[in-house]
Specification:
Elements (H helix, E strand, L loop, with lengths): L2 E16 L5 E17 L7 H12 L7 H16 L15 H15 L4 H20 L15 E7 L10 E7 L22 H11 L4 H13 L3 H5 L3 H5 L2 E2 L6 E6 L13 E6 H11 L2 H19 L6 H12 L14 H16 L10 H17 L4 H12 L4 H13 L7 H15 L1
Helix pairs in contact: 2-4, 3-4, 5-16, 6-9, 6-13, 10-11, 13-14, 13-15, 14-15
């Protein structure tokens, strides 16, 4: 079976020279691309065309994360090997082409429950992107449309945004390999929403008291501010220090997050979030605690060792640590590293498993905390009498959605669910109780 090997500190260029013994010397130069996936077949052979594409995505398209792309091509190459197919051989009969056979394999896995529709669609999309690149780079030559890896199609999509009256539809290019992702029957969203009910929130709040202070605060930030897990883990002291009140009685505050203060937002987008005074005070109290300052001291020590050359780490980790010198992270691991969102995700899984021993139906993901904020907050705004359009504009800004359709699904959810009859104040109350009981 094909396999992936990840190499660190890959450079965009290299210099080739000869030494005094006339032996070749290859030295790195150019821009450091960081970690790069490398695909090998089941016999251990380097797959040049796939790895050239990975390199192009990093060096030319400047993509930071190739995780989805590499998993897609690994899955595709493993499929080719299992079925004795070649990536560049396309018979004229469509159903015999490797791309269409792979699509059918993904559909079968969906039916078996082995893979989600969205994952299958992403894999198929990346395989198509790979072939488009090979055609552009002449790594794959197609003489006629019968031997092409797929058929290009153009579809018309109806607009539902505010400017739909000016241009009701727009056309996008796709292929006949696309896998349709079923939309929820009531919300018309790609994935079903799963916010926590009042009972689940209260149970989570009680159980968080027994968890570490860092994990407890991370969960509270996600559910009360609507942050993604990467945003929670990268929250900085700079962001907290510039919180400004948005109500006369100073019970709610506004915090700006984004690259300007070191918070890793999606698409590096600057935005404002809201936070209660109770949670903000709790975060500031933790920031000045002896527990955190000990961790900060370890982090500062690591940064100084890297700068002096006494500590050698991979480039991506070095960049991350040096970044902490400019933007001090709120959450630091016990080892003195900025908290990794993958570690927090793993801790959530362990935490969820503890709750499921009491309540087997608690199957929520960490991202459902953000979803919980969105649904309860929107419900509160609508209950307060705010027009739906204005309420959605507020929520879209707080949550950092790029598209209106993403925010609209919260409204559609509310229209079809009776579980959220309580106002956002109830969510604040539950979270406040979790803070008070833990102190």
């Amino acid at each position: 079976m094909a396999r992936l090997v990840f190499s660190a500190d890959t450079y965009s260029h290299c210099n080739i020279s000869r030494d005094s013994n006339n032996e070749l010397i290859i030295s790195a130069s150019g821009r450091n691309l960081g970690m790069l996936p490398t695909l090998y077949d089941r016999n251990g052979h380097f797959i040049s065309v796939a790895n050239s594409w990975f390199f192009d995505l990093k060096a030319v398209n400047t993509l930071q994360n190739l995780s989805s792309y590499s998993r897609a091509l690994l899955t595709y190459w493993s499929f080719l090997e299992d079925n004795n197919l070649e990536w560049d051989k396309f018979p004229p009969i469509k159903r015999l082409k490797p791309t269409y056979l792979f699509r059918q394999c993904l559909l079968t896995k969906i039916k078996e429950g082995a893979i989600a529709h969205s994952t299958a669609n992403a894999y198929m999309s990346h395989v198509v992107q790979f072939y488009i690149w090979t055609l552009h780079e002449r790594a794959l030559v197609v003489d006629n449309e019968k031997t092409a890896p797929f058929v290009i199609e153009f579809i018309s999509i109806s607009r539902t945004d505010k400017l739909a009256h000016m241009r009701p539809t727009f056309t996008v290019q796709t292929t006949d390999l696309r896998i349709r992702v079923p939309k929820n029957s009531f919300s018309l969203s790609i994935t079903s929403m799963n916010p926590l009910s009042r009972e689940s929130l209260e149970l989570m709040a009680r159980k968080l008291i027994d968890e570490s202070e860092e994990f407890r605060l991370q969960c509270l930030i996600a559910v009360q501010c609507g942050l993604r897990i990467s945003e929670v883990c990268s929250l900085t002291i700079e962001a907290l220090n510039f919180a400004t009140p948005i109500t006369d009685n100073n019970i709610r505050y506004r915090i700006s997050i984004g690259p300007l203060n070191g918070v890793k937002t999606k698409f590096s987008k600057e935005r404002n979030i809201e936070i209660s005074d109770q949670l903000l005070n709790e975060l500031k109290k933790y920031a000045a605690s002896e527990r955190r300052l000990k961790r900060l001291k370890k982090l500062t020590r690591k940064i100084s060792l890297i700068k002096s050359g006494e500590l050698d780490v991979m480039k991506f980790k070095e960049d991350e640590l040096k970044r902490c010198e400019k933007f001090e992270p709120l959450f630091i691991s016990e080892q003195g590293n900025p908290v990794d969102s993958k570690v927090t995700g793993a801790r959530w899984t362990d935490f969820r498993n503890k709750i499921r021993k009491i309540e087997p139906g608690f199957t929520h993901k960490f991202h459902d905390l953000r979803c919980t904020y969105g649904t309860y907050r929107l419900n509160d705004l609508l209950e307060a009498g705010l027009p739906a359009g204005e309420a959605l504009d507020y929520l879209m800004g707080w949550m950092g959605h790029n598209h209106e359709q993403t925010t609209w699904k919260y409204l559609r959810f509310l229209k079809h669910k009776d579980v959220l009859r309580n106002k956002f104040a109830m969510l604040d109350t539950i979270i406040h109780e979790a803070i008070v009981e833990a102190t």
